[in-house]
Design a protein that fits this description.
This protein is of the alpha/beta class and about 425 residues long. About 30% of the residues lie in helices and about 25% in strands. Helix 5 (about 165-180) runs parallel beside helix 6. The longest helix is centred in the middle third of the chain and has 14 residues, at about 165-180.
Length: about 425
Amino acid sequence: MIVTVSPSSAKGKLQAPPSKSCMQRACAAALITHGTTIIDHAGSSNDERAAMNIVQNLGASVEIIKGEVVIHSGPHLFKSSFPGRSKIISCGESGLSLRMFAPLAALFDYDITFIGEGSILKRPVDFFDSIFPQLGVEIQSNEGKVPIKIRGPLVPKNITVDGSLSSQFLTGLLMAFARAARKPVKIKVKNLTSRPYIDLTLDVLNHFGFRVTHQDYEEFTLLPQDPQPAITIKYTVEGDWSNIAFLLVAGAISGSVAVKGAFLNSSQGDKKILEALEASGAAIKVGKDEITVSQGNLRSFYFDATNSPDLFPPLVALAAYCQGTTTIKGVKRLLHKESDRAMTLQEEFGKMHVDIHLDNDLMQIKGGHQVHGAKVTSHNDHRIAMACAVAALKAKGNTTIREAEAVNKSYPAFFEDLTKLKVHLTKS
């Protein structure tokens, strides 16, 4: 799909798009919970569909009833006599689904192979090559990448893991240990990145009744779950701050945008977009259940995105319109995203006459000059497509985005929501 965005003033109010990170975690927790889980305000992105597909393939039932996702699961799934519904499971392009559900699939004692498509084929999972054998799990990988073939059952034990590549691996282990622990067991973590995402995982586990404690994110203790009858759990998916960020930046660049359902008490690290917007001089108004961001005299700022790397794309779009040079820290976290995101941002925004300099872990964006509309491509990266669309709002001339369908990975309604904000765009 090709989308052409014309210079526009973004104005209006939207409901926050649902968080795929919360939804995927809720699906995983539902799989390991005996009973029925009802998930409200779920989205329909490709990543969320991948999570529901995996849950079904591992033996739980998934239904959509009156707009809610209903998942039925139980202890029978994990008995050795249960053959499973599929031995080959696709995670699509979802890195979280692969890294989180692989440890859960390792709870089963039959061969399960994870496959994927697109960028997931290049993303490393060699973490499992070293960790799974310590837990009694057989694994065969494609030199540290998918497809990976695993066979459990996983037996929790005290281990030490490296959390520097991605917190998603730890999320998967916490989920699996929470289900399988028969006595208190500890996971020690070195160099943990993206702590807010672990907070999100802990929030979901707590909501589903699992008991996990930690000491300064360096040692996690999983306590055994008491036997219990089937229960019914209701879970409401939060608004997605990773995607809310693009909407708020659109307001800061060109107009005034209000978002309902953006909760300030969320564990999501990307809510720190508000700190960057405030530092940039954007006008921010926070209401009871609504945040409004409007144009201001934008100035350069410094922001550490090490623990919120998904904010790089909207921050670059914002920085392009800030007077002076903006510095963002955390570039090393961008290598294994849907694209080599630092290089992709430099390349595509360069086409729009935005100068981006990379210096080890720092990205410097020279802003305040006229942004030009251009022919750009998403590199099949959803956040690149959205960043270019937002940057186009005050550019000189139209911006044409190729592979714009990449937004389906996390925010299928993105371009429809832009039109609701009176943004002029066409699709072809």
